[in-house]
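Notes, p. 3: input format for complexes.
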Amino acid sequence: MVSASERRRFEVVIVGGGIAGASLAYFLTERGVTDVLLLEREEQPGYHATGRSAATLAELDPITTLHALKVLGGQFLRQPPAGFAETPVLLRSGVMVLFKNEMWDAIRAAAPAIEQAGTRLVLLSPAQAVARVPALLAERFAGAALLPDDGHIDVHALLWGYLGHAKRRGAEQRFGTEVRGVRVEAGRCAGVATAEGEIHARWVVNAAGAWAGKLAALARAAPIALVPHRRTIVTFAAPVDVRGWPMVHSDDDHLYFAPESGGLLLSPMDEEPMEPCDARPDDEVIARGFARLATLAPSLVPQTLRRRWSGLRTFAPDRVPVVGEDPRVRGFFWLAGQGGCGIETSGALGPIAADLIVEGRTERFDARTLSPARFGGA
Ligand SMILES: Cc1cc2nc3c(=O)[nH]c(=O)nc-3n(C[C@H](O)[C@H](O)[C@H](O)COP(=O)(O)OP(=O)(O)OC[C@H]3O[C@@H](n4cnc5c(N)ncnc54)[C@H](O)[C@@H]3O)c2cc1C
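Output follows (378 residues plus flavin-adenine dinucleotide):
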């Protein structure tokens, strides 16, 4: 809540207290921009997509821009600045991606270029993959690529690392405060409206996750078709000791699973488009996921579940994040559309966004590939 005594004028107001908003607050304050306010509608940060992810760094990606962002983000996760968090933010538990025939040929051909682009990978025969994860049926795939330097992200440590350091450097954070309007004067952002009154800002950052399209509409910014898609995760007991297993990912079987708290976590990789909301799982989607697991690793199919949850992954039409100043409304800045990789790329998108706000350019990345202007709409 904003009380009458609280400040109402800032250089930068960030709307959204997920990993995107938190990482930007961190990287702005690292660059000396501390006149920053982060506003989050929920009573706690990370309640939506950020708190519901599979918490994985998996750099392999068929979209070149995403691969490059993940490699950059992976560097931050593997080696954050000294004192960033009390525990490592990345556990290199490994990710093993399974391939069927044509895709296996393609990945073998592409392997040198993937390594060249910064991702270490080890190609495995089905027998070698089964040696690592004995529950897999070897006849169900032609080969696997193991990413030994990727693995499990401690999202809690990462989120609170960003928020804690940003706060110590002077950035304010207000939870339980919803932005209900964006004030635009003569084509330039002037601030935001909340239930407790207006807050003036030179920059308003759209880090609103699944609500990014709604926030942009309030500002009459470029109408980028960002669509939230539901994704579900379940956890259950494992029949054997799975603690040393990598995550197993199979696009062909439309599922991934990984060790989690002594048991297993599985996603049926659902991708249901929907309006922004507090997403809930669909039992039928889960049942279909287990039917597919029964053909790949039948011994893992459980009788009961421990937990189930869903969250929204929000995509732009080309599935690449949208980062940059709006082409219509000056001072309205997009940090949205991270889809299924907002956690692992936060250590890349945060500094890119901070560069663009502070200097209007970045040396770290080809910002044109991320710009909201790529969809037209000026
Ligand atoms: C099941 C699942 C698995 C995933 N697995 C991975 C993975 O393994 N690795 C990975 O990197 N990524 C993964 N992702 C994607 C990742 O979770 C997202 O890309 C990332 O969390 C997006 O962060 P965000 O800050 O943009 O969004 P969010 O975390 O949703 O934060 C946006 C915040 O904005 C707030 N907000 C919205 N509108 C307003 C308003 N008007 N006023 C104030 N506050 C507002 C919301 O309350 C919300 O807290 C997964 C996602 C899901 C759902």
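The chain has eight helices and 20 strands.
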